[in-house]
Records
---
Amino acid sequence: MRWALSKLITALFFRKKAVKIGIYGPPNAGKTTLANRIIHTFVDNNEDMGVATEIPHETRRVIKREGVLIDLRRRIMNSNRDRNRDRDHDPRPRGSRAKLMLDVVDTPGLATKIDFRDFMAYGLEEDEAKRRAKEATEGVIEAIKWLDDIDGVILLMDSTEDPYTQTNVVIIGNMEARGIPIIIAANKIDLPDATPQRIKNAFPQHRVVPVSALKGDNMEELYEEMAKVFR
Amino acid sequence: MKKWQRSSGEEEGEGKVKGSEASTGIEMNVVSRDKVESMGSMEKLRFILDGVKSGNIVVLEGGLTAEEQMKLIELTMLEVDESFTGIEISGYPAKRGLLNLRRKTRLTIIGPAAKMKTIRKDKDLISAIISTT
């Protein structure tokens, strides 16, 4: 009874609110794929936050999914049960036991230029391409405005591309100036020309986690890092 | 390869370099640290964007802070249309100042996306192609 009362008081007055984590990065880095991967893993395998395609600026509005519980302990137990693995021999570190309540914020890709002609190269009609370009510019502004409400950032970079772009530098510089914690995820490591080491070399002052959001490679390490950095 | 010459009638602290052939050249405004520091943030961003929208390359000694660069991206997006597709921006990364507190920016170069393309960048080198067509 006393325990239940204590839990109730804690829940009412000392409840830790969910941390808002923004997934930022350039267009086509895989932000929506990562957001979907997180939701599939911890919420519902049939729920998507957004649609991911090869056309840049597919996400043109910020999408928020509230109340995502990153429960690594439960996930490990499930995964161990599934794989019939002995917990005592689980190679994952102790940090894996962490829990973290998140609001996941999937943002439009940040860019300094948007040309409707680029969309026409993907087969879009001119009118549709112009409409998409206009929405994409609004999406960039919205993503920037959201930085004021974010508690932490996963900066997603494509590890097959040059990471040293001004957009990446500007995002990191802003997060450092605001004191907002940041994790860099080097995405697309499943591709043969991926070089996540190049991202590590470009931003040595930050933790870089190589992942494939599409294939789910090394996601456990990213979740552990999130639980550590954003708690 | 284009040759550049200093134009006459330049403002104090602002070096204007024009292409030798006005019809095909690109104007480059090289702005001194004193001039940059004398401007407020919005004044600076407006100055840059007006210059870039006119087709000029703007080089700022002392550069822009990360916050100013983010604001510049935001302002740029407000002005993107069919004829102005945005900006290309490159800068040397900031250096930590006294006691690792103050971030000192070094140099920023901004141009119209349709004419300028950064091809390589590291902490002390920026290589860019500037198209005159």
Note: The radius of gyration of chain B is 15 Å.
---
Amino acid sequence: MRVWIRGAAAIAVALLMAAAGCGGGGSDNNASTSGGGREGGTITVLMGTAPDYLDPGLGYTTQSAEATWISYTPLLTYRHETGTAGGELIPGLATSLPEVSGDGLTYTMTLRRGLTFSDGRPVRASDFAYTIQRSIRVNWGGKSFYTSYIEGAGAYDAGRADSISGIQTDDATGRITIRLSEPYGAFPNVLAFPSSGLVPSGTPMRNLSNDPPPGVGPYMITDVVPNRSFTVRRNPRFAGFGIPDIPTGRLDAVNVRVVSNTQSEAQQVLNNEADVFDAGDTLPPSLLPQIESRASDRFARVAIPSTFYFFLNTTKPPFNRLEARQAVNYAIDRDALVRLASGFLEPSCWYIPKGIVGSPEEAGATCPYGERPDLARARQLVQASGMAGTPVTVWGEERSPRREYVDYYTDLLNKIGFKATEKIIADAVYFPTIGNAETDPQTGFADWIQDFPNPADFYLLMDGRTIQPTNNQNFSEVNDPRIQATLNRLYPVPATRLESVASDWAELDQYLARQAYIAAYGAESMPKFFSDRIDFDSAVFHPTYLNDWSTLQLK
Amino acid sequence: MATVDSTVRAGAPAARDAAGESAGVGPYRLALRRLRRNKAALGFGALFLLIVVLCLCAPLYADQIAHTGPNQNHVTDTVTVGGVSKDVVSPTGQPIGPTWQGRFLLGADQNGRDIAVRLLYGGRNSLEIGALATLLTMVLATIVGIAAGYFRGVADGVLARILDLIWAYPVVLLGIALGTSLALGGIAIGPLQLQGNSLLVPAFIIGIVYIPYVAKPIRGQVLGLREQEFVDAARVGGAGPLRIMWSEILPNVASTLVVFVPLMIANAILLEAALSYLGAGVQPPNPSWGTMISDGIRLIPSAMHMTFVPGLMLVLAVLGINVFGDGVRDALDPRAKVRLEEQAEEASR
């Protein structure tokens, strides 16, 4: 997923692989929420930014995933736990973790029996194949995870095939076999994306965000008012399936309202007029002191492996010149960006963040652009690039502090010799807009929060094969042969052996920094902030999907 | 919207008016005399003029006193206040408040930009947009209003329906719709090419949406004027429609247009602020009073100055031009004031 979402999994891969051999046990009972909370009730979640899509086949932001990962359970999913434990892959609609062939190319699973969608239709193994086809056809932003690795998925995407030859299903036995075109160590995590969450065969292959299709999960998305509100309501059928480790939910419903003013959003939660401040939003600095004093028992900062950066389109002037890109990296004052984030940012110039295998920072590497900004050197480089005075349009979102980041960045580009102007657009359409080839942006804000704890997840955005005409995530349009060759070597490494190639990933990340394909500036912490009504301690803050609504309960 | 229903024939001597001034004095000179007696209007006019002059001096203030530009960030800079070095923006993101000295006189915003500098530059932008939008409105509304009223028939039918169409759409919503779409792609109409972040875009939008508010009263007035004898005389004398509209009709609606100008400037400034507040007007990082209020909203509890200062300037500017505009209306059409007072009395009974 992009941007805000994703998460988590990574460790999952490791544990997954380990567990693959033994067929995945899991606990005997459904995951339960602890604490003395009560069953039922309705809460209100406030979001500063509307989900990009509420269709599981298209959603790719945290705001979307918070709703879809509990409404569309894939064959595999993540343990509903806080911290690294939440990165563990567990069987979802599959009976166990997949059996993987010795060459790493074939994955075999079996669908649980007796499952039905939220509208009562029975779930069949062939629905999985249809779900993947649909995600590709509707052009999900991460579809390259499928098209790059599943045999025949690329041909299906290109319209050369009517189905994906690498996915074989048997409705009678529930057996699902996936054949990869090349080994990909993180493929089990791909199966855990909400976009892999099953929808019925025949679901229209178009954006159904306004009327999301049926799914299999503890909740279901209803009453969508685009960009305004939606409700996540408990699916009465789900508890009967008895799927281990997936909470059946305590709340009857979660009403989600989009409140573009984060000041109002935070104030309402502080005053107990609403229940959850969306973790994807930034707390206004003016309210932080009050929140920390008045609501210390219902507020926490949670560090999430993430990277915040400015993308630099390598195919367009001026950032098709190495010197121009390096100039930006020399000029950026990461401490300034920390202040703009009200302290919710840990500065870094690396793409792979701390907490992810291969982080150069954890390997002891020093930033090639120094610890302090060097404007003089940046100006020299801009002059040397021959791009001084080049008009640059900087793209950004309206939400704070991202707009402030872009205001700062635009001023910086002007200071080092470019002629920069801003283009700020609505949050909900920002990533689809800059990911559209017709927009073809020069530079702007971008971020990435782990889909799963594996550097391969981050390098999706630097993989030349992921460049696509719509919903593109490789905003810098990086297509570097050296990166491609390294990725081809590192991608097949199973998560169980990830540590053995940590130095290779770190070296790759240092190469990326030297090439200045992006200007990274840090990783954000996120707020876990509830009203007094919510049982704070039992609520899971998932490393990928943030606030886990299926674990929320009223006191 | 105030209108003037009194018309003065071109070249005709002014009749004794309601205030009792003697004949033989030109109507505009007479109006100027009345305006001079209206101290409140003159006072508020002077206030508006002062704001305009201050805003025009923005570059001077930025260069010589504040030593920074309107978009220059100073996030990690410090400023010495009373001998103590202070962060312009604290590590937790709190901007410094008013220092009451050259640098950061009225404090900084969250990006460490000098609010006083942005206030003046923002005022320039707001006033420029207000003036340009008013110019556009007045020119187009005059052409449309006179043409519709003079030609009547099909031309009037088409033009009046177009005006009705624009009129029927709520001004702010229409402004937002146009502003949002044009902010992305700019304007490209033949030789007219405007970038999305150009100040001319909000000026264009505001200028267009207010056309009916001026054109419709002008049209109504022209419908009456075209039946007057002096128009017939011109027509009999061989003058064509364009000449009649230019030399006979236009001078007679001029006083109405003059009354409209300050009111339209005030409306345009307000609409610009509203659109910019909503992100559909002046595009960041360029300041305007509307964008500055919007920027300050999230910091109201701890940095109220970010919202209060541009808000106050907006109120003063609009109040100044509005009261002055009322004075101009009273001076050009004293009977309008009498009518208003009569209406108020009737309403109070």
Note: Residues 1-34 of chain A have pLDDT under 50 and may be disordered.
